[in-house]
Structures are given as structure tokens and as C-alpha cells.
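Researcher: Next entry in the queue.
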Amino acid sequence: MHTGGWSDTRGERCYEICKSIIHGNESTTYLPPVDSTVSPTKVCGIVMVVVHATVGTLVITLNLAAGIWGGWYWWRGKTSPIFWPLLRSGQAVLIVQILIGATLIAQGHRAQDLHVLYGLLPLGVSFIGEQLRVASTDAVLKGRGVVKQPASELPEVEQNAVVAAVMRREMGVMAATASVVAVLALRAAQVGGLF
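Model: Structure for this entry, 195 residues:
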């Protein structure tokens, strides 16, 4: 196989992946000749941008799903075992997305300032949401007078009611947080030209 002077096998693989994405079912074994203007770095950059856009869409989808799911259960006064894994998945993908974006910027890709701002704001919103979640737990405990006496001294029925109220309040706070993250990520995608 002609490598066109490329000694980096990762560059070859990135070119093959990008070519297969762009040209569909065409053979991916062709690499450009030495005089080609396409470099492995440029091809890998294109692939990274596609990955960044794909992961960004996943951030929007997971956080929107967590916001809607958690909001629905909060409104109904119930808790959901699916909400927390969905929320944490959205948060994990958000961190991956920010790392990909930082890598792109470190590689010299230029992004609009608003895109970077809207891309980083969800991390701050998630952090603030976690702090509000902790504060909401304290509010529920104070509202029920549990601060005056340890929860273990309450009757079992009251303990269960306190736990349910805390879980519902935490889920409501984090559902609202996930919804804001989804909106900010959507705005980042719009400013970045995805939508």
C-alpha cells in the first residue's frame, strides 16, 4: 500500500476512517500520493470535529432525557431508579465532550468565543446543581425537624417519609440542572454550526 511518505500509522488509519465516512462504501485502502495537500493531521482534525459533534449531540440527548424523566417523576411525587444512572451518564459524557473540545483547541482549531462559553457553562451549572442538591437535603431535614434529633431516633414510618422527601427534592433539583445543561449544550451546538 502506498503511504505517500506518511510514516505514522495512526495518520493512515485516521485518513481511512475519514474517507470511509465521507465516501461511504468506497475502498478505504487508497492514500494520497506524496504531493497531496491532505495531511494526516488535517484528517485526524476532521475526525475529531465529527466526534466532537457526535458526543455533543449525546450530551444534549442524555441531559434532556434526564431532565424530562426526572421532572416527570418529581411532578408525580415519585422517585425513579433510572433517573440517577441517566443523569450521571449525561454528566460523564459532558466531561468527555469538554476534554475533546479542549483537545481540539490545543491542536489549533479555532472556535467562536460563545461556543467555548456555552460549552463550559454546563460544567459550572452541574457543579452548582450538586451544591443545591446537598442544600435541598438540609432544607428537607430542617423542615421536618430532623436536625433537632437524629434520624435514627424517628419512627420507621417517619424515617421512610424523610428519605422519600429527600430523594424527591434531590431528583427535582438535578432534573432542573440537567435541563439547563441540555439547553446550554444545544446553544453551544447552534453557535458551533451543528444545527
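Model: Residues 51-191 form one domain.
Researcher: Noted, moving on.
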